[in-house]
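Budget justification, computational time. The allocation requested in the original proposal was used primarily to generate structure tokens for proteins on the priority list. As evidence of use, we reproduce two of the resulting records. The first is shown immediately below.
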Amino acid sequence: MLLNNNQKLELYCVIVFSLFFIILLQIHLMSALIAGLLTYTLTLKLDIFLSSKMNRFSNKSKLISVLLLSIVISIIFIGGFSYLFGWFVGMAKNPNQAMYNIQSIIDSISSTLPDNIKEYLPDDINEIKYTIILYLKEHVLYLQSIIKRIFHTLIILIIGMIIGLIFGFQENRRNLKEQNIIEYTPLTQTLKICLNRLVLVFQYVAISQVMIALFNATMTAIFLFIILPIFTIYLPFSKSLVIATFIFGLIPIIGNIIVNILMFFVAFTVSFKVALIVLLYLILIHKFEYILNAKIVGSKIHAGICELLIAMLFFETLFGVVGLIFAPIFYAFLKLSLKELELI
């Protein structure tokens, strides 16, 4: 099948986008792209909503949407840092109380462990202090590198969000001038088509992630409030765990890991066997969610579940967790582009 000039140009842009994605994965900047796509998409959606609801300020709806998103993002980051800073300051001001709380948790955990495991746990507060100080001394460089990596990732995310907000604002300014016909070059027009397709695919994946978060929260609620009580097992902080499951579930892969750790340790305070049962249940849920994710995204781009699962496995092998997160976006973008070109 011979391609016309427009198809050749679009295929060239798809290849450029694909190479750009791979380079970003290699240099660990994909988180910035995902953050930018998120704020860009939210800006466009919020602008459409505000312009339809606020006829009087329709010309300024984009500016208002950018300001609202900027305020929300600032509140989230400032609130999160304030909470963590206050938590660390509280521990520093009253270290004895912190050690006492740790000792209480260890005592409750040790009462449920077999005897051959108990001997590896510290016996008193002094031993806990000694163990923590020894660990910090032995792993100080490793901890410093982790802290630097976390701050580096946060800075990348913030920069990506800012870029997304700027692009979203500029896109609307162009739309406001649409009455003045602007003639784009063929390459610019094709790049815009590819960008719009990427945003569309990102919306598919984002909707999929929200549905997965709802699925995880629902299954967790059923497990905590129905299944476990049948066997007279009650986990503390059950309501908080369900809410945390939904909130962290909006973050692909990493959010699930955080929730799994929280639930495992909460279950550990009840019983070692309960902790193992909870861990097994969570593993089963999260394995099933890969299939659910592939099913939701695949239905939008007419891709089979096996196709997306293979793409996720391939990208996870090559690029790690970030590759696993980005695999549905990349594969959906690539297949949708090839379908538009009538190559598949």
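The second record produced under the same allocation is shown here.
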Amino acid sequence: MNNKVQFLQALSRYDDYLICSHTNPDADSIGSMLAMYCYLEELGKNVTMVVPDPIPDWPLPNIDKMRALSDQEHDNIIILDCEPKRTGSLLPLIEKAQITFNVDHHKGNHGTCTYNLIDTEQAATCMILYQLFKTVNFDMDYDLAQPLYAGIVGDTGGFRHANTTTEVFKAAADLTAHGAVPHLTAEAIFATKPLEWIRFLGDALTKIETKYENRLVWLVLSDQDFQKHGIDPSQCDQFIDYIRMTAGSEISILFREIAPDVIRIGFRSRGINIHQLALRFGGGGHLLAAGAQVNNRLADTVEQVVAAASKLLEGDRP
């Protein structure tokens, strides 16, 4: 199902919702959860938001109502910005639910829930929700506009990525007119970090490695690196934006060992289909931005991924 009206009718039919998203939440996942929470609250529904990973300290309405992982079962679950298998420890709860809803914009999501709203052409899940709520002329105020704007800003890289379209700018303008605050959103997501994080960034960037005259660039951060600096690995996904700045880079990769032998991999590309590389390692995402998580030795993972990325640059499938 990709019919907006039918999707909204189904949402109004049930109660007692659990809202969740993917592990290691970003601005689009957090924003879409908060926007859906706001919408369902207005409908008088009983709603719980669950985020098993650390919740960002962002100035977004209702973010304080997000909860850590709970084993409480819910009849109806809404999965936002991912497919069910990417929810990590929440998957067992999803599998027990009677009714599931899924809103997502990532490639590879085949819409396996009871109700699905999948649009891989959209820049962000928050763009899909924005269009969804506009379908019924839902009364938009700050509580809805601010998280939607944050999600769109996050997944377009502050309107810098190739997914920044005319429709994105129109949506951003409309959300701003309804209360979203652009400068506070940009500061929170991109420009406010603890001093320890900034010092760690400086140390980390000295470890960048390259191949093919900088066409392939990668950075490896081990569990020991994070422990040495007292930094949570979940706070460092933005490091890939700095790697990608390397002149001439075509594929950029960030390896983060979030626990011993548990590696999160971020992929970015300027034009090559990086989604196929992420799929090779059990992940997914978009054509130019994707990710994966691997349970393996860090050194072995780096060797395998760099070899696959090299083949991709040479014109072969990874």
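A brief technical remark on that second record: The first helix runs from residue 4 to 13.
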